[in-house]
């Protein structure tokens, strides 16, 4: 992470950020935020970014209050930030807003994001692909799940890194079951699988799994 910050390479920073988010270690939060702020400056931004915790709190508050205006504002803020670890929170916010008759909220649409991903894949540009994929993941739109998985598999095949890839939904479901059941062996196995998959949207789930494993006397896992 320190090397990426010194070199100030946008593509490298994106990779490092996603790897660190996917790892699910809470002590990396400040470093991740610093990298994000540096990346924002590299692409012409001010570097003044809100943290995932702050954005999540806004989403939770809006969901609890069932306030359409707050929901829409919080969803737009999350879309702008594009933090993959907020994807499930954003998904819940969109669902709440829809049940209240306010639509999905924000500006992102499945069609527009799907098209961005297709274009990036055709260009066969790693940096562009990763940016488009991150945007799709971060959007918190369930209809994109299959597109995200297919894109990951296609890119892995193109990079000669293809393997049997579980979906993030499958890994999340197994993590949550292992945490609920207090299954130490399952947690140890799943944490390793999640580390290998390196899906940034699983960062929060992996953090909870590491915490649960620690309480069972198994350390942090991995």
Throw out a few tags for this protein.
4 domains, 222 residues, 0% strand, mainly alpha
Explain what you see.
It is a single chain. With 222 residues, the chain is mainly alpha-helical. The protein folds into four domains: 2-42, no CATH class; 52-99, no CATH class; 110-158, no CATH class; 168-215, no CATH class. Helices cover 71% and strands 0% of the residues. It contains twelve helices and no strands. It is globular, with a radius of gyration of 17 Å. It starts with a helix and ends in a 7-residue tail after the last helix. The relative contact order is 0.11.
**Chain-averaged pLDDT:** 93
Domains (count): 4
Along the chain, the helix and strand elements come as HHHHHHHHHHHH
Unreliable segments (pLDDT under 50, ≥5 consecutive)? Answer: none
Total count of strands? 0
- Number of DSSP helical runs: 12
- How big a fraction of the residues is strand? under 5%
Q: Ends: how far apart?
A: 20 Å
Main β sheet profile:
none
Helix content: over 70%
Given the C-alpha coordinates, what overall shape results?
globular
Structural class: mainly alpha
Computed Rg: 17 Å
Write the layout of secondary structure elements.
Layout: H1 2-7, H2 10-23, H3 29-42, H4 52-65, H5 68-81, H6 87-99, H7 110-123, H8 126-138, H9 145-158, H10 168-181, H11 184-197, H12 203-215
């Amino acid at each position: 992470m320190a090397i990426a910050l010194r070199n100030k390479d946008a593509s490298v920073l994106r990779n490092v950020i996603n790897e660190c988010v996917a790892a699910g270690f809470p002590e990396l939060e400040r470093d991740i935020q610093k990298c994000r702020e540096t990346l924002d400056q590299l692409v012409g931004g001010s570097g003044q970014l809100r943290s995932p915790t702050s954005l999540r709190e806004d989403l939770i508050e809006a969901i609890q209050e069932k306030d359409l205006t707050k929901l829409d504002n919080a969803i737009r803020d999350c879309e702008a930030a594009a933090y993959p670890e907020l994807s499930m929170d954003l998904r819940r916010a969109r669902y709440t807003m829809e049940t209240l008759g306010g639509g999905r909220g924000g500006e992102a649409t499945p069609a527009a994001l799907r098209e961005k991903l297709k274009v990036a894949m055709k260009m066969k540009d790693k940096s562009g692909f990763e940016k488009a994929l991150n945007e799709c993941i971060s959007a918190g739109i369930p209809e994109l799940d299959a597109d995200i998985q297919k894109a990951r598999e296609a890119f892995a095949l193109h990079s000669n890194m293809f393997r049997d890839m579980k979906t993030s939904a499958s890994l999340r479901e197994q993590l949550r079951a292992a945490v609920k059941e207090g299954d130490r062996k399952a947690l140890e196995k799943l944490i390793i699988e999640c580390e290998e998959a390196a899906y940034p949207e699983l960062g929060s789930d992996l953090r909870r799994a590491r915490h649960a494993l620690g309480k069972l006397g198994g350390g942090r896992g991995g």
